[in-house]
Amino acid sequence: MKYSYIDHLYCPKCENTYSHEEKNNLCECGSPLLVNYDLDDLKNNLKKEDLIGRAPTLWRYHELLPVTKEENVVSLGEGMTPLLHMPVLEKEYDVTTVWMKDEGLLPTGSFKARGSAVGVSKAKEVGIKEIAMPTNGNAGAAWALYATRAGMKSHIIMPIDAPLITRKEVYISGADLHLVDGVISDAGKIVGQSAHKHGWFEASTLKEPYRIEGKKTMGLEICEQLNWEVPDVILYPTGGGVGIIGIFKALKELMALGWIEKGKLPKLVAVQAEECAPIVKAFQEKKAASDFWPDSKTKAFGINVPKALGDFLVLEAIYETEGYAIAISDEDLLKEQQLVAQKEGAFICPEGAATFAAVRKLKEQGWLKSEDRVLCLNTGMGIKYPETVQEEAPILPKDATI
Amino acid sequence: MKYSYIDHLYCPKCENTYSHEEKNNLCECGSPLLVNYDLDDLKNNLKKEDLIGRAPTLWRYHELLPVTKEENVVSLGEGMTPLLHMPVLEKEYDVTTVWMKDEGLLPTGSFKARGSAVGVSKAKEVGIKEIAMPTNGNAGAAWALYATRAGMKSHIIMPIDAPLITRKEVYISGADLHLVDGVISDAGKIVGQSAHKHGWFEASTLKEPYRIEGKKTMGLEICEQLNWEVPDVILYPTGGGVGIIGIFKALKELMALGWIEKGKLPKLVAVQAEECAPIVKAFQEKKAASDFWPDSKTKAFGINVPKALGDFLVLEAIYETEGYAIAISDEDLLKEQQLVAQKEGAFICPEGAATFAAVRKLKEQGWLKSEDRVLCLNTGMGIKYPETVQEEAPILPKDATI
């Protein structure tokens, strides 16, 4: 029994193939690469019931992950995050079922841990010693800490405006941290040039093929946690869009394995911020790719991505599942963040809050029906963005009584 | 098959008993109350193998928890936190095995979620609508958010110097938050008077009997995760000491059930801060209870507890397991926090870091042996205390190359 059923890498644009035993970034044609598994072979060797009793981490799906030797797994205990029922919000939004998958309960407090755990593990397996990446915050924090866990050196460049806590996470990991007086695309340029100069491996979003595989485990877990049923709709806060690509890939692989029913794909919804909504614009215009969004800004910093390298894959996932793309104003998403805390006791991040605001809006618009069972992905802990909460409280003297 | 095997409450000091179907705080004699289960009955009805396949939350142990009806469970998905191997630190400290149980991966980012999940659930079961408590931060955040999840009102009083992020957590939950220009004992007095005046239920540490039961699940999980073996030593950052009391109770219950070997208790070590070390002082003087520690202070805010209500139970756990009590300076615990991040990629909290510093010190002193298998409890995420990390990073212009 093999630990992984990975077979090769392929380009979804030009269909070129590559070996997973070598270091790979983009395809020659400039497209991100995807991982292919020998699913026919796996189907004969693994039943979904075999998962019962495995430890509650994303490595329970190791056959569907790219790391071929267990000793290369770099782990901080990531995966099997809670799938919570939100009964108060169901009434508030008037839909049958609202679930939240809480990705805050991961090492480093965000869903970025999934991509970095799998990405760093595979980097270790192919002999990479030094990585470099630009980041808006959470990804850099995750990759820096996992790189340290792997005994690898990391070079992280982030905009000077990125959330302060993520900067501290990178710093304490021992990474080589630089700030740039600019935005993520400026950081990306510095990484590209510096990586080329020093021979560092570029681990930028989708420039390495394995982050998607880590994010894919969100989709695997959702299906397993719902006892191999799928929700009607999954809403995902979309910046680079790796999560939506990964979830779509998970669903297709599970269908190929016969673990979920064929032809019953959940509708995938990309949720963006109003002032950074390139995918929404492309969706409205029925395009296959997005245009660069100039002067993008949003308080949901993690989805401030003006042009995603995998935009065509995100749009494909939306179109093929008969999904949707919707933009939420910062005002609305911050209001919803408060509401989710006050109604359900969950302090979620602004990006996650955008998906709840989207449920409200899509129900009001009639795109969601009362009978829909919807799932919101909260991609991180609220405490990583303390500045989104302006608290007030009376100060009492020592001898007071309320 | 019963959901819970709870039988009654009892006083460990005067042996008075109470019904778990009523609201209870302290015993008439002033001691905290403990929960008794019908373990003989449970032994006949549950095998440890029956746990396999249950969801990875602390509710997998529902037979050993006080909530009698599943519908009263208030959950944000808490439990089954990672038990990580720390291979680099093993060499650093020269001991055979170092594990870390990472309690940061819980709702609200700290181990306080365990006590509040179980405490709030049982409060709901006995009909409590409104709770009040003093807090140094993390407990208040957890109880406020879980109370909201339960549809309960909470009144939280915290010192003005408590960590800012925890204040924001309480605020966003919709709780009634007050700050006091004083320390936790001042907050406690205000809570006592105000709760009495308004008829609120006092949920202060050990003033209600169920927080221990939640914390007990740390001990249950450690044993299950180690395949029903126990470590040689467990180190726990000790403020109120509920965790160490809970772990000790878990071990005794598992022995009574025959799930772990009789007579092989791990040594329990209470780790405190040098400037707030009442348990350490009592241990050195071989006393059964501690004295109030005046002018206590430490950057590990969560263990700034000058006199714990359950001090005699903490000391009993240490004495009965042939454990130890040790104090760490703030300088040493902050240094160790950095080291754990830089060696293992885990950004832990200062309280958790104190346990690693304690391993180093106890090995140097010879109390720990090279062959010992030790387990450190990290009680929360490092990101909840961003002020403990002073980061520095060069700022680059947009067109730079490193």
Automatic annotation (TrEMBL), chains A, B:
A Pfam match: PALP
Domain Tryptophan synthase beta chain-like PALP span(s) in chain numbering: 74-380
UniProt keyword list: Lyase, Pyridoxal phosphate
SUPFAM superfamilies associated with the record: Tryptophan synthase beta subunit-like PLP-dependent enzymes (SSF53686)
Gene3D superfamilies listed in its UniProt record: 3.40.50.1100
EC annotation from Swiss-Prot or TrEMBL: 4.2.3.1
InterPro entries for this protein: Ser/Thr_Dehydratase, TrpB-like_PALP, TrpB-like_PALP_sf
Protein name: Threonine synthase
Biological source species: Evansella vedderi
